[in-house]
Amino acid sequence: MKRELFDFLNSDLQFIKGVGPVLATRFGDVLGGRRVLDFMLHIPAYVRARGVTDIVTDAMPGDVITIPLLVKSHKRGGSFRGRRAPTQIICADKMGNSVVVQFFNVNFLDYWLKKLPIGQWRMVSGKLERGSRAVINHPEFIEEMQYANKIPSVQAIYPSGEGLTQKTFANVRDQIFAMLPDKIAGESDSDICEFFDALRHVHYPESGDDLLPNSPYMVKLAYWELLAHQSAIVISRRNRTDVRNRRIVRPQKYKLVEKFYGTLPFSLTGAQMRAINEIFSDMSRDIPMMRLVQGDVGSGKTIVALAAAIKMAESGAQTALLAPTDTLAQQHYAKIAPLCEKIGIVCDILTGRDKGASRREKLISLRSGRTKIVVGTHALFSDDVEYKDLGLVIIDEQHRFGVSQREALRTKGTNPDMLALSATPIPRTLSMTVYGDMDVSVINEKPAGRLPIKTTKLPIARISELVARLKVQVDAGAKVFWVCPLVAESDVSDLTAVQSRYDELKQIFPHAGLVHGQMDKSQRDSVMAQFADDNSDMRILVATTVIEVGIDVPRATIIVIENAEQFGLAALHQLRGRVGRGNAQSYCILLYGRNVSDAGLKRLDVLTETDDGFEIAEQDLIMRGTGELLGTRQSGWINYHFVDYARHRDLFRLAASAARDMTSPTQTVRDLMFIFDRGVTISA
């Protein structure tokens, strides 16, 4: 890739005219980065047709129209009984029909009044609403008649965030693509030029069809993205098996594994033992292990990982267990530390909370090799953290960490073994193409004594009946999760907010707890710890999806998921996995809203019929449609920009085949790997 193009793609959005540092930060929150490239990979979600009409009576309420209007008068808004009336611009269409253009935002009224001068015609575009008369609130475009062609007939609508308008997106897009031809001028790689041409078509769609997964532009972009990922997988596997990366197999110094088995108060399942044996076999080779352990919620992955860590300790080497959140790290440590103490292994925890003398002591213990197992968060790969001999890296919920983060921890040792854990079953049809750089172990059994969770769906209209039944269960000692989709009430959504539901339930359950993502982290952790405490009076925890992963409260036997139709299948399955972690019968109640769709009910039916995570993942893949790949977040799969798991299965296979047949990475592949952030070290 030409240096000028590389620098342009890597440049900060704040240097695009009209953006600046504040808007760049807002873009960063939405795009996941602030580079020009991050913006270019953030494609429109859909298009909005802006139908041109001369007569307002030809349009229906809710239509987005573009119409010439004659400005008749201005009526400034004001306060009336504590409420502010909107400013109204009274207009007329070509047939004399009245159209009112309204503005509620007082900060820019003078600006809008100047844009709509009395006695002048203006082309106005916005959503038509009707009451006693035709109204357009806050039109998105107002242009003088000679500049009416500036209003797009088809408008690309981008996924956005607070403080970012569609006009801002369009302005940044226009500037980037205006500069792009100069940056790729003379670019000799025709594939890269074709890539940016396809990207331009997606950012400037002529219709909604251009954004469908089967459009020629989206298919091209999806294939190139998959080729970048599959090439990274192949290169990673080749690097791992390269003779230059072989390591000396560590000799056994101690006998700890059998001692570990003897301390367990339960028997391991056949699936757990099979996974452990596969891991031990990998660890005995001179090629560093790269293995993924897939197991459904509650299948016992942590014990399998601990067995691997103890096997590594038999050679005197160290293990780092990386968790995505402080809460999950604390839970792992609480489980692992007592078992380690019984067999004489030093286990410690290192998170961002550790400061001062406490942190220094832990770092000294790691550097000396005394600490054999350390559990923690991103703090495990901080610059000041040194290991004497890091032999094994375990990554929990591996999809939450990027390539660079995993590599940062791996480089703390010399070719350490890598073990990834995932509670998100991926459809069997895709496992080799998504996790092709890893060997995969599957734990498909639940520990003995676990009962299937009884799952039912219930309309929201029966909520009072449900609360009455919960009161009986809570009085008898049950612990209950109650999950809501939103943190706060929203004017644009009728979904239930966790705060308002908590306020209502607290009238019935005085000791109810509340957690959500906007709370202070230490406060959230404190509430969760209180709920998990068997001696606590807190019997019901009202929460958002912050409890989705890793929260382990064996006494919790009931979970209520409100507006369950709004969640993806994988997310629902993860949430359901917060109960059923003990030997008591557990229940999941899926509350659905009044406006539930047929597809929403079908998803809930899948949950009531099976608790097999792999079957649910297959159904998720079959049912998922265009634009519904919120699933990348909900399921934890790779967060592709253009790939639709349900529609591009053949492209997966084509890209995987092309990558395997590649003897060495071409410049095109290297460029694609940069574009899609699939960076791996490419051996010379």
Structure description:
The structure is a single chain. With 684 residues, the chain is α/β, with parallel strands linked by helices. Helices cover 38% and strands 18% of the residues. It has 23 helices and 24 strands. The strands form five sheets. Strands 14-15-13-16-17-12-18 form a seven-stranded parallel β-sheet, sandwiched between helices. Strands 19-24-23-20-22-21 form a six-stranded parallel β-sheet, with helices on both faces. It has a five-stranded mixed barrel with strand order 3-6-7-9-8. β8 and β9 form a beta hairpin. The two termini are 18 Å apart. The relative contact order is 0.10.
Give me a quick take on this structure.
The protein is α/β, with parallel strands linked by helices and 684 residues long.
User: Sheet bearing the most strands, described?
Assistant: 7 strands, parallel
Spatial order of the strands forming the largest sheet: 14-15-13-16-17-12-18
Structural class: alpha/beta
Taken from the alpha-carbon principal axes, the silhouette is globular
The total count of strands amounts to 24
Outline the low-pLDDT stretches: 625-636
Helix coverage percent: 25-40%
Q: How much beta, percentage-wise? A: 15-25%
Number of alpha- plus pi-helical segments: 23
Whole-Å distance between the termini? 18 Å
Mean pLDDT: 85
Radius of gyration: 29 Å
